[in-house]
Amino acid sequence: MTQAIAQQEAAGVAIPDRPGEEGAAPDVTAQDTTEVVPLRHPWTWAASAAVAIIALMVAASVSTNPGFRWPVVAEYMLDGQILTGLARTLGLTVAAMAIGLVLGTLLAVMRLSHNPLLSTMSWLYIWFFRSVPVLVQLIFWYNFGALYPTLSLGIPWGPSLYTADTNALITPIFAALAGLGLAQAAYTAEVIRAGIASVPRGQTRAAMALGMTPRLIFRRIIFPQAMRVIIPPVGNEVISMVKSTSLVSVIALAELLYTAQLIYSRTYETIPLLIVASLWYLIIVSVLSAGQHYLEHRYRQR
């Protein structure tokens, strides 16, 4: 072997270095045993200590301040009036979101339509209801009778078949559903439109080339992919709707917050009743957030 190496050297052939010799190429297959020491961040530790101290101070203040009156909070958490207001809050949330989803889906389809009239009308609706605050819309619908004292149903420019007093029809619950549902439809329409638009059009064209019907294309191709984009913002909209129902207290609808206000207007226990309402909002939002996380995880795995 030594003779072969000598012949290669005489012929000018480069001989690779032996492992361990000076100038030899490193062995890339060898495991690196160098210990990695994380970089120290003293400011991070200082900030963490400051946050921990502040949190302890707040917890101590909340637990020892007699003004919070925690026994009163515990007394009213399961009070019958509070639970009735809570049920109305949940009912308003479900009904308003149902209106928003149905009408929002229709508006999204109109917005994506090639018909310029449908697309323009959808854009105008979304522009208007996203621009006007929900509180203003609630007050407007509650006072709709001042604009139209009576509502009639009949033949245009002909006899009226049915006439009713507007104030008898526009009850607080109707005004609340109109104000919350119509405004929510504008936001939901944009969410659904973005979800549908996120699906590449090439997939739709390929499915049409294979002879798939539009309904099958939507169910098997567009819907599953669009839901990954739609669920997170719709979940956030549901959570926002739960909190937005508190706005209907201005039209004297006894949901959770207004019920708490009615109670503390008699007992003068303002802070404990506001804490009761806040705790129930925290519970509802926590449950909805867990459900949103589950749905996101499920559609992400598809």
TrEMBL record:
Topology relative to the membrane: Multi-pass membrane protein
Transmembrane segments: 43-62, 82-110, 122-142, 162-183, 246-264, 270-295
Domain ABC transmembrane type-1: 86-292
Cellular component, GO, one term: ATP-binding cassette (ABC) transporter complex
Keyword Membrane: yes
SUPFAM superfamilies in UniProt: MetI-like (SSF161098)
UniProtKB keywords: Amino-acid transport, Cell membrane, Membrane, Transmembrane, Transmembrane helix, Transport
Compartments, as annotated in UniProt: Cell inner membrane; Cell membrane
Transmembrane helix keyword on record: yes
GO molecular function list: transmembrane transporter activity
InterPro entries: AA_ABC_transptr_permease_3TM (IPR010065), ArtM/GltK/GlnP/TcyL/YhdX-like (IPR043429), MetI-like (IPR000515), MetI-like_sf (IPR035906)
Lineage top rank: taxon: Bacteria
Broad class of where this protein is predominantly found: membrane
Gene Ontology BP, a term: amino acid transport
Region span, Disordered: 1-30
Family the entry assigns: Belongs to the binding-protein-dependent transport system permease family. HisMQ subfamily.
Subunit field text: The complex is composed of two ATP-binding proteins (GltL), two transmembrane proteins (GltJ and GltK) and a solute-binding protein (GltI).
Function text: Part of the ABC transporter complex GltIJKL involved in glutamate and aspartate uptake. Probably responsible for the translocation of the substrate across the membrane.
Name of the molecule in the record: Glutamate/aspartate import permease protein GltK
Provenance organism: Roseomonas mucosa
